[in-house]
Amino acid sequence: MKKTIPTFLYIIPLLLLIFFTDSFSQETTWPVLKSYDQEHIARIALPLGGIGTGTVSLSGRGSLLDWEIMNKPAKGFTPDPFLFFAIYTETTDGKSATRALEGPLRYEEYEGYSGSQTPNHGLPRFRECSFKAAYPFGQVQLADSDMPVTVTLEAFNPLVPADLDASSIPVAILRYKVTNIANSPIKASICGNIPNFIGNDGSQQKPDWLNVMRPIGTKVNINTFRNEDSVQGLFMTSLGVDSLAEQWGTLALTTLASNSISYRTTWVNQRWGGSLLDFWDDFSQDGVLENNAKLQTNTPMASLAIELDIPAGETREALFFITWHFPNRMTWSPQSTKTCSCSDSTCNPNLIGNYYTTQYKDAWDVVKKTIGRLSDLESRTIRFVNALCFSDLPEVVKESALFNLSTLRTQTCFRTPDGHFFGFEGCGDNKGCCHGSCTHVWNYEQAIAFLYGDLAKTMRDIEFNYATADNGLMNFRVNLPLKHAQEYGIAAADGQMGCIMKMYRDWQLSGDDEMLKSLWPNVKKALEFSWIPGGWDADQNGVMEGCQHNTMDVEYYGPNPQMGIWYLGALRAAEEMSAYLGEKSFAKKCRKLFNNGSKWIDENLYNGEYYEHQIVPPTDETIIAQGLKHNMGAKNVFNPDFQLGKGCLVDQLVGQLLSHVCGLGYLTDKELVQNTLKSIMKYNHKASMHDHFNNMRSYALGEESALLMASYPDERPQFPFPYFNEVMTGFEYTAAIGMLYEGQRDMGLQCITNIRNRYDGRKRSPFDEAECGHHYARAMVSWAAIPALTGFNYSGVKRSISFANIEGTHFWSNGYAWGQCKVKGDEITLIVLHGKLNLDSFQLKNRNIKKFKDPVTLETGQEIQFTI
Questions:
Q1: How far apart are the first and last CA of the chain?
Q2: What is the DSSP letter of 638?
Q3: Whole-prediction pTM
Q4: If DSSP states are collapsed to H, E and C, what string results for 683-737?
């Protein structure tokens, strides 16, 4: 029978948890990882929203922009008219002031067609503004010498690893902290103004109203004031938008029922700026709104003001919730409506829905279910961010890992009602970019498995249970609904091999033998697909030689490091899984192919500095197996263009990186791996892009530093693979983290620093690393820098955990639990801050393994101390 460690050995766990978190500072104090002065806030857009819910973004100056909540990206979309928050102050001598709660405009925003085109450009605002962040927390600090107050806007959405429910709430939480810097008490009021824009998702000029007859004066979009269940505010609905449209749903702007408030359900419908003038006159008079609007419009304004009395030198808060509920997500691979087999005339075969909307009835229900647990949600989010921020990792590693988690909340990602997680590659301005949870792109992402293991397992389920055909071909893009999952018909060599490795990773992290047993038949088929006639390794010698479609969106012909090392990693992963399941013969075959392939690649592709590509065109195009060739690559396969050739590829060791993450060891010779990474830095690193020619897309410019996708020290094909001259952060991270794994710390950190210097708030948003679209999934490989530097590896199968033999405080997470490990000489303190951790052994690498006498189970708030 399994035993748990005796309670007394936890050293009074709950008290220790309190002591431990107090060492960070109180859990009501928000952590700050990065501060941005007024010169570095112009491009900041911090996404506020839950996993799979869409987001609205907080700008660096305090405005809300990019309202991407209606199932589509909507970059640059701010609903019109007049979405803003404002403050009214009045001192005891009767002097009053009114300001938009935003920092100043930039000079480039001053002029445009008929003047400034910035929303609410005519509103007075604060002179001084700065921004602080530790995702998901964003703080805007506002000051003005003419105002008797300073204001800090704290905005966030709960983010608790291993708790999907807590991390998937469609809410933006805004807390305005107003500090009285006058010598006497003041009266203040904070007012939020949001138009009821239901029906307008940012991709259409006008809402798509239902084409039905209505009596004159019928209200289309409606704002209703409610005060119930500890919540009060404005509930926004629509009678005019088709209830089956993507843009149909509900919104709410609310606060706590205990606040003293005033409100408007709409503004007067007046021309020539009269609507804003009427509101401003009303609010500026005394900070109290009069709900006296005469006429309802199609886009009525919802205004909610919270009144505050603030003694001299003290701070008071106004708390707002913006919640939303838009259930009608459509497929990313549209089907003809003629294919629908149901008899209901309203049935839409493209409607796939959202998981989050199955958890709430509407936007009002969201805030009702959130408000009572806000303190707990905020505290646990602070605990996570503090645990990472107060570890001994380099600041730039924390920043790149944490800030890129914002992608999980954007329209890049969504969940269907059955709980499956899906992702575009990234987001266009008003539509998803590159559908299908593309295997060759999502192979790089490492955050989900280590933070939300259950989500990662849904992706493995899709890849092997739905996307893999009977012959082992894994469709590298999945069409939806899932009955169409195999219609894409093309396999990516790197994508398919990486999914096999991720299957091993997720099995190890979870210890879920049932998942392995269930998916293994198709995992095995996916590997065996490499060996079919005309396939990637048809001669079964452990070397990929066939037509290899890959993440460069073309096919490589002949053996190359990128695909070849992915394949070696898949062979190693399959060997381990098959051996565990008792399939010794298959395990032996995988080992034989691995040994042969690894040796061959070292002897034939390593050129003395790095691995290169031997271009070997097919002798007969008809022998290429069906499903291997896309229409994006070379037209003439006998003399193919778009090849890597003798180039030094930035991510040629991506398979080795994932092997380290998985704990599978070296796939090729260790010394050659280390030499290759040094060569990537030598040949691909550009200290300045000033003199760099690029015939494609530019993600780095001017005096910025970066790693090029490929360099050609000796010989370049006339037309190499398309992106060779580009710079993309996901690929840079891959090389950089490979360097960290090999102990090349200075080089790796320099590459990561180069990236984050480019995303500095002034030039680009720190929360939107772009590639083919905004919020690109590949950049989440940045999370792998954490296990690279801490040496963290966990096996739920062996119930073992290990770290690098380095003193300090290490953050760890395995997708189901997270916490810290403190190493001081031979003394170890292992802390679980959330979740449940099962252990039989502990190891500091290159030290003896600590085997516990009895099985250890640690849960939230518990720790264990021991010597090694």
A1: 26
A2: T
A3: 0.94
A4: HHEECCCCCCCCCCCCCCCCCCCEECCEECCCCCCCCECCCCCCCCHHHHHHHHH
